[in-house]
Amino acid sequence: MIHALSNTDFSKIENIIPTLDRKHAAILSILIYCGLRVGELVRLRYKDIKSPGGTVKEIHLPASTSKSGVGRYIPIPKKASAAIQIYMDTSAQDHTQFVPEHYLFPGTAARPFMSVHGVEQLITRISLKALSRKITPHVFRHTYATRLLKNTNTREVQLLLGHKKLSSTQVYTHPNMEDLKKSIDKTFK
User: Are strands 72-75 and 49-50 parallel, antiparallel or unpaired?
Assistant: First the structure.
């Protein structure tokens, strides 16, 4: 079963972003506004974030990083752009030399990138603080897909999520009676 955040819970998560440190704000922004899988997020490199003119615009997820083996470009909404840009600017300043091949979210000790478990723990802390309950990072992907499907077609959502098969995307289509009524009213004005 697909679990997506309600509009109220989504707003609570959005409202907590400004209270987080730069790295955690960037991680949460990418998860909720770009719909990446955690494994894809932790393997992002600086070069995967496209920022023409100094403004973060899109993520290029190479096929080698994607779970499905499907590379894709994901536009970054304005709501996420600032948090990601601030993190990138400050983390680049912390290093003596900016290297595009370096991981965006480096790991600790011998790990080249942050662990999936580390992100899961972070999301647990954030969700307990914002929602008073534990959620997994994948709930953000479900929420991303569900919200997109209210405003666009299944094929576009398939491309954004990096699904090979349309049937994988269709699991997010769970219209309720209100959705059906809006569609009918919109179609037969």
Answer: unpaired
Residues 6+ apart with CB under 8 A from 24: 122, 126
Helix (H, G, I), strand (E, B) or coil at 45: strand
Query: Token match 């569900």: residue?
Result: 146
Q: What is the CATH number of domain 7-187?
A: 1.10.443.10
C-beta of residue 28 within 8 angstroms of C-beta of residue 146: no
Q: Does the pLDDT value for residue 166 go beyond 70? A: no
pTM, two decimal places: 0.85
Q: Which of 162, 3, 13 is nearest to 79 (CA)?
A: 13
Helix (H, G, I), strand (E, B) or coil at 132: coil
Domain ranges of the chain: 7-187
- The token pair at 70 is 């499907």
Please give the backbone phi and psi of residue 45, each rounded to the nearest 5 degrees, phi first: -115, 160
**Got the DSSP string for 84-98?**
HHHHHHHHHHHSSS-
Segment 33-73, tens digit of pLDDT: 999 999 999 999 999 998 877 778 999 999 888 888 888 89
Helix then strand then coil, in percent of the chain rounded to 5, is 55, 5, 35
pLDDT of residue 162: 75
Q: Region 16-22: what's the mean pLDDT?
A: 96
